[in-house]
Design a protein that fits this description.
7 strands; 11 helices; alpha/beta; 290 residues; seven-stranded parallel β-sheet; Rossmann fold
Length: 290
């Protein structure tokens, strides 16, 4: 039986653009009061205006997900405004393209702080309220790359794999408490993420992002997420061929490595496999603000 989402509040992080923004709009259209959280207050306020002008209920919350206290405050504000939170969607995250040996420890730790720990920071206070009520839904925006390590995006892939594995464990830990846990696994999606990837990667793009037949819209991912909220399931995918290909890659890692070596490593990366000392310094400086 499908869950009637009308009147059931949801908190969404990373909601100022892309998948988070699209999901907020789709959830509001389904009748859910929406708390949109991110760092860009102006974008959040515009989104709230868009939702409320269409007859929905929404609240903005400026937050840095690496701050546990701030995340706890978001959940408290959500319940004060709209009542018990039904769902929390840990969607905030970023990526960069850089070989591990060219990345600093600070850069690797920083991406884990946002993508992985930022997810747990918003989920934990929500669970503290859901568990006594014995009901709720936790969602994490992982990635298709959670199933395979991609060269020059190993740190990003690892954060998404960590989300995936934690969610799988929590799915069983919380099942008897009436709480659903789901991961969303987008393929290439046309969002600002790719501009941010380029900014954090010293301005260069090793992969061609945001274009082509394989690119999906944020709305497609958002609609699939709302379907999962109505009829909970463990994983949300919007590309069956990608899902099957990654399943095969897991079953046959040697073959996957051969394919990756032949077609998966971009030409730009091969051309920059041995950057000069000056290029290394420039690239490092470009990443320092991540």
């Amino acid at each position: 039986m499908a869950i009637d989402l009308k009147g059931r509040p949801i908190v969404i992080t990373g909601a100022s653009s892309g998948i988070g923004e699209a999901t907020a709009l789709q959830c509001a259209a389904a009748g859910m009061p929406v708390v949109v959280a991110a760092r860009r207050a102006d974008r959040l306020d515009a989104l709230v205006d868009r939702i409320t002008s269409g007859g929905g209920r929404a609240l903005s919350a400026r937050v840095d997900v690496t701050d546990p206290a701030a995340c706890r405050d978001v959940i408290a504000r959500a319940e004060e405004a709209f009542g018990p939170v039904h769902a929390v969607y840990a969607n905030a995250g970023y990526g960069y393209e850089r070989a591990f040996h060219e990345s600093s420890d600070e850069q690797v730790r920083a991406i884990f702080e946002t993508n992985f720990w930022g997810s747990l920071n918003i989920i934990r206070p929500a669970l503290e309220r859901m568990i006594p009520r014995r009901g709720g839904h936790v969602l994490l925006c992982s990635s298709c790359l959670s199933k395979i390590g991609v060269p020059y995006m190993s740190a990003y892939s690892a954060t998404k794999a960590a989300q995936d594995h934690f969610a799988r464990g929590m799915r069983h830990e919380l099942a008897d408490l009436g709480i659903h846990v789901s991961t969303v696994h987008p393929v290439l999606t046309a969002t600002e993420l790719f501009d941010e990837v380029a900014r954090r990667s010293g301005g260069r793009r090793l992969y061609s992002h945001g274009r082509g037949l394989l690119v999906q819209s944020p709305v497609r991912v958002a609609r699939a997420t709302v379907r999962c909220l109505r009829k909970p399931r463990g994983e949300v995918w919007t590309s069956l061929p990608t899902r099957l290909a990654l399943a095969a890659a897991t079953a046959f890692p040697g073959l996957a490595d051969a394919v990756m070596r032949r077609w998966g490593i971009p030409r730009a990366a091969r051309a920059n496999a041995n950057p000069t000392a000056e290029e290394r310094l420039s690239n490092h400086d470009g990443l320092a603000g991540s």
